[in-house]
Specification:
The complex is a heterodimer of chains A (419) and B (161). Helices cover 30% and strands 18% of the residues of chain A. Chain A is built from 14 helices and 18 strands. In chain A, the strands form four sheets. Chain A has a seven-stranded mixed sheet, with helices on both faces. A five-stranded parallel sheet of chain A has the order 4-3-2-5-6. In chain A, strands 10-9-8-11 form a four-stranded parallel sheet. In chain A, strand 8 (160-166), helix 6 (175-186) and strand 9 (195-199) form a beta-alpha-beta unit. Chain B has 161 residues and is an alpha/beta fold. Chain B has a single domain, classed as Aconitase, domain 4. In chain B, strand 2, helix 4 (69-76) and strand 3 form a beta-alpha-beta unit. Chain B is globular, with a radius of gyration of 15 Å. Classes of the chains: A alpha/beta (419), B alpha/beta (161).
């Protein structure tokens, strides 16, 4: 019997000769990630367990991206804790200040995570790296501490759900719209404990930026990981970035899936997830009249240069509607510089946007874009839970970049076709 | 382990932003996190609950972020355990790794009212409700998870190896 890509990668990181869904395994970890929120607890646990040396200083990534630039004294203390640990252990991949980017945009961009890797991160959106054909999953801080100490972690081998996507997407329909549609279809626990494997002709043609957006939100369906079979698009993305060997795994033709779900991408409109669940999805034509106070373009889901180009295309020569706060967050310093050189930042400034430094702050209601009571924001982010971006009685509407840009101009949730 | 307590009912998909909102994540101090436990699901929760109480949730309890601050806040608040129809996977791992007892019961949540007093016997795999004859079963905990609990969490489990 054949194996799925997820099973193959997991097995390759053990000494086992066979593997099956449900089995508990101990596997070697290639890259372990922590940030300024989750790493301090891991560091505390690491030290409490008598940790003196991390398992491999080249395989740990510490990224101070959540409450940075430091939002208050406590946040500064947390960053200080992580910085001192990084210096003490000579951590190779430590990012802060002008080097920091939103972790899940930064690690693929820098070639730190690669196809065939087993990656764990004390951040739920670690599943993003599945876009590269890696097994990547979010864990807690104690898990991270265990990996810092031993380089290994326990996993339950997940069942896989295969998504076969076919048909040519309409204009404005992006990977974000595909994944919102899928979550709307299967629910926020529709893939609980499972691997979501994305295949089909639409996926094969999908650019890497869209794949990263899709894998990023696998967790919003409860999945353990999202994964794309690596191909020429993967190779093109990875080749100039990789500084160590990597491996392409693909599923066997007779691999076993718990479920196969087919999706006709040609019939989809841009999607919007209404409050307060990412599964509460409607087509843009069914959105109705929702006035907005803010439009946030950025995050680990949609803060890449491709997103900024889409946004600039819609915002060029236009302005955000009166009293709508438009916030653009290039996800990494490299993307920021690209946007600067391509003239995108000028377009955003002319449109009345605030251009934020790379940070997760606004997306998780940390800082730099908080909502007041009763306010509504359309956002290219990944979560719209109660209180996610501010006051418990504020609302977040999740959408792709084109909808977020068009909505900023029209002051209500709108299709880019209306521009 | 036998746990007795008054229950607080919550619905499906209680996410980690509801359990401990991100605005409080500028600290990992358990006592400080506990002050805001469940705040965005029930702002008065911490003024009404008493230590030893039990949280009963629906499907997918603890979905969303990987923040271990969520089980830390619940444990530090004095909640003795969480019983839900199902748990989101990172929350599930975190709870076992850091020592918050959690149990899956498909039927309990729909059959009892807020404020009911229950007795949970993990060895027997059963829950009884004060003043009711019915007994509810809890899903058996996988042996590895039992070992984690017996060892006092993941770090102590590793140290013991």
């Amino acid at each position: 019997m054949g194996y799925t890509i997820t099973e193959k990668i997991l097995m390759a990181h053990t000494d086992l000769k066979e593997i099956a869904p449900g089995r508990l395994i101990n596997a070697r970890v290639d890259i372990a990630l922590g940030n300024d929120i989750t790493a301090p607890i891991a560091i505390r646990e690491f030290r409490a367990a008598g940790g003196k040396k991390v398992f491999d200083r080249d395989r740990v990534a510490l990224v101070l991206d959540h409450f940075t630039p430091n939002k208050d004294i406590n946040s500064a203390q947390q960053c200080k804790t992580v910085r001192e640990f990084a210096v003490e252990h000579g951590i190779t991949h430590f990012y802060e200040g002008g080097q920091v980017g939103v972790e899940h945009a930064l690690l693929p961009e820098k070639g730190i995570v690669l196809p065939g890797d087993l990656v764990i991160g004390a951040d739920s959106h670690t599943c993003t790296y599945g876009a590269l054909g890696a097994f990547a999953t979010g864990v807690g801080s104690t898990d991270l501490a265990a990996v810092l100490l031993t380089g290994e972690l326990w996993f339950k081998v997940p069942e896989s759900i295969k998504f076969v996507v076919y048909g040519k997407p309409q204009k404005w329909v992006s990977g974000k719209d595909l994944i919102l549609h899928i979550i709307g279809r299967i629910g926020v626990d529709g893939a609980l404990y499972s691997a979501m494997e994305f295949t089909g002709e639409t996926i094969r043609a999908l650019p890497m930026a869209d794949r990263l957006s899709m894998a990023n939100m696998a967790i919003e369906a409860g999945a353990k990981n999202g994964i794309f079979p690596p191909d020429e698009i993967t190779r093109e993305y990875v080749k100039p970035r990789a500084k160590r060997p990597y491996a392409f795994y693909t599923s066997d033709p007779d691999a076993v899936y718990a479920q196969t779900i087919e999706i006709d991408a040609s019939r989809l409109e841009p999607q919007v997830a209404f409050p307060h669940l990412p599964s509460n999805v409607r087509a843009i034509s069914q959105a109705g009249e929702v006035k907005i106070d803010q439009s946030l373009i950025g995050s680990c889901t949609n803060g890449r240069i491709e997103d900024l180009r889409v946004a600039a295309g819609i915002l060029k020569g236009r302005k955000a509607a009166p009293h709508v706060r438009l916030i653009v967050v290039p996800a990494t310093p490299f993307i920021y510089r690209q946007a600067l050189q391509e003239g995108l930042l000028e377009i955003f400034m002319d449109a009345g946007a605030v251009i934020s430094p790379p940070s997760c702050g606004a997306c998780l209601g940390g800082h730099m874009g908080i909502l007041a009571e009763g306010e509504k924001s359309v956002a290219t982010t990944n979560r719209n839970f109660v209180g996610r971006m501010g006051h418990p009685r504020s609302e977040v509407y999740l959408a792709g970049t084109a909808v977020a840009a068009a909505s900023a101009v029209l002051g209500r949730i709108a299709s880019p076709d209306e521009i | 382990m036998i746990l007795k307590g008054k229950i607080w009912k919550f619905g499906d998909n209680i996410d980690t932003d509801a359990i401990i909102p991100a605005r409080y994540l500028n600290t990992s101090d358990p006592a400080e996190l506990a002050r805001h436990c469940m705040e965005d699901a029930d702002p008065a929760f911490m003024t009404r609950m008493t230590p030893g109480d039990i949280i009963v949730g629906g499907e997918n309890f603890g979905c969303g972020s990987s923040r271990e601050h969520a089980p830390i806040a619940i444990k530090a608040a004095g909640i003795s355990c969480v019983v839900a129809k199902s748990f989101a996977r990172i929350f599930y791992r975190n709870a076992f790794n850091m020592g918050l007892p959690i149990f899956e019961s498909r039927d309990l949540a729909d059959a009892i009212a807020e404020g009911a007093k229950i007795t949970l016997d993990s060895a027997q795999g059963s829950i009884t409700v004060e003043g009711q004859n019915q007994t509810f079963s809890i899903s058996p905990i996988p042996p590895f998870m039992e070992q984690l609990i017996a060892d006092g969490g993941l770090m102590k489990h590793i140290a013991g190896k």
